[in-house]
Write a sequence for this structure.
């Protein structure tokens, strides 16, 4: 079985060439799935004939007979037609429709491009593994969350697609303020497109005004304040940070959890005798290997963890992680509504962990 393709490698394989007969899209980045589906449709079907030659369906609504009709219908006044079926993970493996699908992907129609889109795994549930038969028979593309450098490139390309440019500082602030959620970033970029000047790039101030987040009041600024044990500052920042576009208490705690794990690792390296000047490099290597979610960039994140390591002892950071996990569970409880109060209670508990380790 061939190795699955990333978004970039699949795009390069598709660009300027005839599409594969069957694509199977998996992974947790739903926005990239939508973008790749659009790329396939653009390559497979002329825009003028889409109304007649593109069908999009939801897997639970497709029967075996319906699937056969969709993929075997000849294109109308065109070379190819395309069929997109979403949420294919909801098909039962031994169902009649899956039996029809399994036979088809082994011998697909030469005039149909079929795109099978698997849904992302739900938070808190066991990760759904790709279907082995579909992954083997189709062109398997895995759409994972983007790393920091690729995220910045995605913002730039998305803005250009919407007809404007952004300065590096504006791009950086948008990412820091909104986070790595591509759907939320796309929404904010769409808003910027309405107000973007025609002759100059969108700058930092215009982004700050639109998303309502000033310098020093982003999600990452809040996390840094907690990691450095500047708890009063973190409490003061709660309201503006929670008011930012795309930010909620769960995202705050998720980002804090990632930061605390990084600080715990930094503390462990320091306790093993890693020199302070080498600590950041060691942490960057860990980031490259593990690709932690919701980070600004690996170098900045590693340096933040390294700076904070001296503020905590090993037992203190362990207790901070336990308290943060408990806060996360509380926020996800359907019986609670005061998210801000729950996060503030966590901050107060962190402030009581003892004297700062030196």
């Amino acid at each position: 079985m061939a190795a699955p393709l990333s978004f970039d490698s699949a795009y390069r394989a598709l660009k300027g060439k005839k599409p594969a007969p069957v694509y199977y899209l998996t992974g947790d980045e739903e926005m990239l799935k939508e973008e790749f589906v659009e790329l396939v449709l653009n390559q497979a079907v002329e825009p003028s004939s889409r109304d007649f030659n593109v069908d999009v369906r939801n897997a639970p609504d497709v029967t075996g007979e319906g699937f056969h009709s969709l993929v075997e219908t000849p294109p109308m006044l065109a070379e190819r037609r395309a069929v997109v079926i979403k949420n294919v993970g909801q098909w039962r493996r031994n169902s009649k429709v899956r039996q029809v699908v399994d036979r088809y992907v082994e011998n697909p129609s030469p005039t149909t491009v079929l795109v099978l889109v698997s849904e992302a795994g739900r938070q808190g549930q066991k990760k759904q593994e790709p279907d082995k038969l579909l992954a083997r028979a189709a062109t398997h593309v895995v759409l994972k969350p983007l790393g920091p450098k690729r995220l910045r490139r995605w913002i730039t390309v998305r803005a250009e697609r919407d007809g404007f440019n952004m300065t590096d500082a504006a791009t950086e602030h948008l990412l820091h303020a909104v986070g790595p959620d591509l759907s939320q970033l796309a929404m904010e970029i769409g808003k910027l497109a309405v107000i973007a000047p025609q002759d100059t790039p969108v700058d930092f101030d215009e982004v700050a005004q639109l998303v309502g987040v000033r310098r020093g009041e982003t999600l990452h600024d809040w996390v840094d304040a907690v990691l450095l044990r500047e708890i009063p500052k973190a409490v003061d920042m709660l309201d503006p940070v929670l008011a930012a576009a795309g930010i909620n208490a769960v995202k705050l705690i998720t980002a804090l959890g990632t930061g605390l794990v990084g600080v715990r690792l930094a503390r462990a390296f320091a306790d093993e005798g890693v020199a302070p000047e080498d600590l950041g490099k060691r942490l960057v290597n860990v980031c490259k290997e593990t690709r932690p979610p919701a980070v600004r960039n690996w170098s900045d994140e590693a340096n933040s963890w390294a700076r904070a390591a001296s503020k905590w002892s090993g037992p203190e950071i362990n207790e901070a992680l336990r308290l943060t996990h408990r806060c996360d569970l509380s926020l996800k409880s359907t019986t609670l509504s005061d998210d801000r109060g729950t996060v503030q209670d966590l901050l107060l508990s962190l402030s009581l962990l003892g004297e700062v380790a030196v």
